[in-house]
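Hi L.,

You mentioned the student needs an example of a multi-chain input paired with its predicted structure. This one should do, with 662 residues in total across all chains.
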Amino acid sequence: MTLLAAAQPPAGGAALGEVFGATAAVGLVTALLLGVAVAHRTRRTTLVARFADDLGRRTGRPGWVALPTLLTTVALLTALFGMLWDISLHIGRGRDEGPLANPAHYFILVGLFLVFTAGMAAVVLPLDEDPGPAAVRITRTWKAPVGGLLVAASGFYALLGFPLDDVWHRLFGQDVTLWGPTHLMLITGAGLSLIGLLVLDQEGRAARPELVGTAGRRLHWLLSSFSLGGMLIGQSVFQAEFDFGVPQFRLVLQPMMIAGAAALALVTARLLLGRGAALAAATFFVVVRGVISLVVGPLLGEPTPSLPLYLGSALLIEALALTPLLRTPLAFGAVAGLLVGSVGSAIEAGWSYVAMPLPWTPDVWAEGLAMAVPVGVGAGLCGALLSLGLQGRLPRPSVARPVVVASLLVLAAAATNGLLATVPEDRTATVTLSPVTESADTPNPDPQSPDGAGTVDAEVVLSEDVDGPAWVQITAWQGGGLVVDRLERTGVGTYRSTEPLPVTGLWKTLLRVHDGRELTATPIYLPADEAISAPEVPAVTSTRPFTQEIEILQRERDLDVPGWTFAAASLFVLACSIALVLAIGVGVGRLSRRLVAAGDRPTTTGTTPPRTADVRA
Amino acid sequence: MTYEVVLAHHPLVTAIPFFVPALIVVGLIGAIVWRDRHGEQPPEP
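Structure written out for the whole complex:
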């Protein structure tokens, strides 16, 4: 087996120096953490326990909840920043020169490793107490909170995505898309860790209810709301391609994803934490994602991601909670999901015209609603179940299980529909290019060509007109920035560019058309790429056929690999993801049952008026 | 100036820095559970 090779390809394998450096650093940290854990459990030191307990007193939680919560928060913010920076780097500069050659990857990996560490901290920390009624026995004298195990499992699953991602790229080439299966493992693991954190928090409340008041119920409520805001952030990472304006999938998927994320997180927030929690969670999302967008974009000089609003959906849920429907959580979740999927989507559609690079044109309204509403209802129901489970009020399995299964099936059906796209046959575009003369009014998008040389204006004639398309645009990326120019319609099937388009160096410039189920593109300029034996597509006035988008957008992807291997690898990743979701379902179910058996339900609930009043106090 | 970078040409090598430490920790916990379930002394007082 050949492990090493002296070569310098632009992709394929990490540089050994980077592997050694990262291994030494993480190995040292792991050894230190293990040493501290052993010293703690053998009572050779009380340092960690004292620190955790002090943190717990300040935040109204046991130490074995407070410290892992702090660690997970830092971890997820680190990973989120790394993920958005990484995506912007890929969009602006193209593929990596290896899995450890991209600085953003270190933020992701350190963040995910810290998520795993946080979960293990929750497992290791409890010494002289049962960590909640749902604790899992490790040894005769050691019990671990189930929430800690779920956080650790989520972190472990996300970390597993890293080596598998390398395997994936070696098998199928570098598919530069966020929605590669192993990329989804990273995002799913990180996102689901927050549900583990919510379980852990409820275990802490049940184990030490007297602590809740020590830090002030308002602070406790606020921190818990932020956890749900974090859940919203985690689910929103799936939308990142749309946020940047380079989605490789149909636009109808975006309303569905926003409705699903909003309904799940915000219904859980309102039912679990009471009045104002949905709004607080959405506000937390906007602030955190807004700050990271500003750091990635204006500060680091990479393409800036936009973000969904969610505040409209939060207001809808808060308003619905003023009705008697709040007393029947499942019905509340379903109606809230319906509102979020319909009215909430309409608000997001308006927001897309203000802040999104690709607004939701009428072309996607009907199908987008047909997907967003059922997914919103299913997510709202699951949010209601999650909040009930965390409060020890989960309905009997004959009710809960069909609801979850049906919701997942609806999500799968809607996602499959969204992924189905067609490529028109025998259709061409004639693109006429003319050099741009730089002036004060024509910003130069190419930092590699300070004088603006190599930028062009484009006139486009489609061989067949499109009727109210989702987009007709020219995208230029991976040459040192991103240009998404929605073309101006000038006549029947004719369009023109509205800003200078780079067509030199490493830029990849293409004409994209999305109309209904059709999703297609034709190249305008592609550089020669020796690493993948791809010739240059010169930037000249020409008539070229439309083709499948991924042949251009994922130029590095190896499309010659047998289809069944891609399907088998995808199914393996899907099976792993389902296993993690099931594990979380089992964990929430275990917590709920044990809370009932112990007759000890945590105090935060937005559905039972007296306890809501407690929270507000 | 040019220089030569030596690359790891097997995905297992790229798994070492972050995933393998997590795997070792999981293995340790698994070993502790196994020892406890099989009647040996637990690793703590």
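You could point out the following to them. The first strand of chain B starts at residue 6 and ends at 8. Chain B has a mean pLDDT of 71.

Best wishes,
N.
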